[in-house]
Design goal:
Elements (H helix, E strand, L loop, with lengths): L1 E2 L13 E15 H4 L15 E13 L5 E13 L2 E11 L2 H10 L4 E12 L4 H5 L1 H5 L11 E9 L10 E8 L11 E11 L7 E14 L4 E3 L4 H6 L1 H7 L1 H6 L2 E15 L3 E3 L11
Parallel strand pairs: 5-6, 5-9
Antiparallel strand pairs: 1-13, 2-3, 2-12, 3-4, 4-5, 6-7, 7-8, 8-11, 9-10, 10-12, 10-13
Length: about 280
Amino acid sequence: MVDRRRKHSSGYGRPPWIFKGSALYQLHLVKAETVRACIPKEFRLVEAFGYTLGGFFLASYDDSPAGVFDELVVIAGLVWNPPTSCAWTTKVLVNSDEACDHGRKEVGLPSQVARFSKRITTVPKGENRKTIGFLNMIGMGAAFSDSRDSMDVQVTEVKAPSLKDSCSFNLTTIVPAFNSKKWMGPEIKMSLPSFSGRTEYTSNLLKYSCKIECRVRAVHPARVSGPASEKEQSTEVDQYECQNLNVAVMLSKPILALKFSCMTLQVEAPVVVSNCSKNSLRTC
């Protein structure tokens, strides 16, 4: 059974809610045993050979119901919703109190307020050639051969419910040299269905959809570091998996990164999902 009777915040107006900007959508292989503990018992994790597909969505919005703001969405993995699958999000970090409040109360997301600090640095000559090796293998390295800069994005949670739940990440991405003639990728339309809820602010399970129109192209995966030094990260990932699922997801192995440019994201009103069986996972 799906209950569509939900109230909507006056600040955001009535859905659908429209966000415009750009984003990096990065997919990771995440250990299923790490994720399974955070998935509601009604759901069955999509997994193969001990891994599920998680990652993150790093967006910068220049037009939205909450104005200009940044967002980092940590996606722990996929759960079955026949005939397809839906994402399960374990953390949303935004630098907007209004966006945080809306995510919590309207969409059922585990939203928290964070600081986003951005810094562009020059890549030493020759070093960028090494970083685009992945793109060279798939025939797209030429699009970044003129890149000379990288962007460091520091995301720090400022209002975590407890110290052990606090998140801090640094993401480093390649910044292509500006050239209006460079191909930004094909125009696509896609839908990303997701489950949410079971939080302090929303006890029900919800289902919602994000419809995206954008130009998309493959890019080199962002380099992610957590709260510890690089040396510590290489030897203590198992410890992170036990202490903080979100850190484990962010530090897991990236397999694909997509840059969304000229993006319009439309978020539909969530619906309440009830009486779901673990086997069928149908809204009933």
